[in-house]
Amino acid sequence: MNNAHGFLIAAPQSGSGKTTISLAIMAALARRGLTVAPFKCGPDFIDPGYHRVVTGSPSINLDGWMCGEEFVRETFQTCLTSLTGQTVAVIEGVMGLFDGIGASSRVGSSAQIAAITGAPVVLVVNARGMAASAAALVKGFAGFDPQVKLAGVIFNNVGSPSHGELLRTAMAETLPEVAVFGCIPRDESMVIPSRHLGLVTAEDNPLSGEFIGRLADVAERCLDLDLLCGLQIPLTLPGIKGGGKTIPLFVKRDSLVKIAIARDAAFCFMYEDNLRLLREAGAELAFFSPLRDAVLPDGIHGIYLPGGYPELYAGELDENCSMKESIRMAVAADMPVYAECGGFVYLTEGIDASENQSSADFAGVFPVRCRMLPRRKALGYRQTELTEDVGIGAKGNVARGHEFHYSEIVAMPEWVGLCYRVTRQGVTLGFEGFRIRNCLASYIHLHFGSNPDIADTFVAACREQRQSKNKPLPQSRKAR
């Protein structure tokens, strides 16, 4: 059995500093010339954006509830075996190490991903106000689940060198088999800004080279990076049937379909695996910006509008009339369109003014308007069952995803199709998934890895558009 180098960074609870420390370690290893393969446990989009900025590589979400164990294993295995050179896999956890979908379930937790991948766990402990008690806390985590291997600990928010020595001594006397990889001193300047959906996105708050350098300096100075890099993950994992699918060699280039993918500061929430699965199904991806581009890319056969923060760029999206017209024309021409969350909001008539939000007019495909709320409207995993045949699957197909937003729409007219029956852990939440012509939109971010039919069906619908006898989609010449 071959081994790869890597580990999973977890914590007893959210707010312990695992994102900042994960970025510091990634930055330091990348500066050493190593290839860092970043991963993120759970459905989050924002942390992977920062991983990409620091490492230069896309970060892959690993989620045992949305995608299941087999998909997570094969995705992780394929990513590591496809890399060359000196590679270290760094998996950032989610919430507390054992926090999943329920009090007694590991599903959806960092611990589940550690068990699936075989990654040793490095526990980040906020040591503020603790000494020997920190060792007691670590001892509880070390013996809690035999499927999770706790390799060591990083103490964060350490008040002084003497505080660090107390922590190291307590660990040496209580848990000598658990390594102390280092102590990170308190430093408020290392905090990354946050907003209602979590951290501010990497697109909206680009990390400066100076800041990334400081993170790397802290990791080099305070952590035993050589010891961390020595941690190993088994490459041949039980249950692996083979790598992910690839486009067959007999597929000719001219048989590919071209799908336009919105990707800019306003639309940056998408799972990298969704893009990979579209490519593997036979799609050529053409990225565009609803903020900057006047029209859709030429020669496309479908559109994917992912989520993001369109409300933060409402004025610019409103002013780009030619792009809005281009999208309306695509929908009117029966082009397959799939939109989720922020992408769905962009397809409505716009956002109404509120205390902290100016009004704006958007594409107007769906005859409703949105409003921003002071409190979160929805949060959590979602399972969807298709109630009719649509561009991402046949009636009865099930897919899983995640919902998290602060906006809401007014009542959708009855003539707009409803395509999803939505449940959460077996409890029916109602119906969602709105369809007009070949345009399907929803607040739910679906992970295409939860159902292999999604990418295949959407690409097939786009191929049908490509092969139709319709005239090419006209492009607006109206200036922005």
Short note summarizing the structure:
With 480 residues, this protein is α/β, with parallel strands linked by helices.
Number of strands: 24
Q: Give the overall shape.
A: elongated
Summed up, the helix count is: 13
CATH superfamily of the largest domain: P-loop containing nucleotide triphosphate hydrolases
The average pLDDT score comes to: 90
Quaternary organization: single chain
Helix content bin: 25-40%
Q: Examine the coordinates and then state which fold CATH places here, giving the name of the CATH topology of the largest domain.
A: Rossmann fold
Walk me through what this model shows.
The protein has 480 residues and is of the alpha/beta class. It folds into two domains: 3-234, Rossmann fold (3-Layer(aba) Sandwich); 253-467, Class I glutamine amidotransferase (GATase) domain (Rossmann fold), CATH 3.40.50. The chain has helices at 18-31, 46-55, 64-81, 110-117, 132-142, 161-174, 209-222, 225-229, 272-280, 314-319, 321-332, 342-347, 453-467; strands at 3-10, 35-41, 60-62, 87-92, 121-126, 150-158, 179-185, 194-195, 198-199, 232-234, 257-262, 283-288, 302-305, 337-340, 348-351, 360-361, 366-372, 378-386, 398-405, 407-409, 417-424, 427-436, 439-442, 445-446. The strands form four sheets. A ten-stranded mixed beta sheet has the order 12-11-13-14-23-22-21-18-19-24, sandwiched between helices. Helix 1 packs parallel to helix 2. The longest helix has 18 residues, at 64-81. 49% of the residues are buried. The model is unreliable at 237-252 and 471-480 (pLDDT under 50).
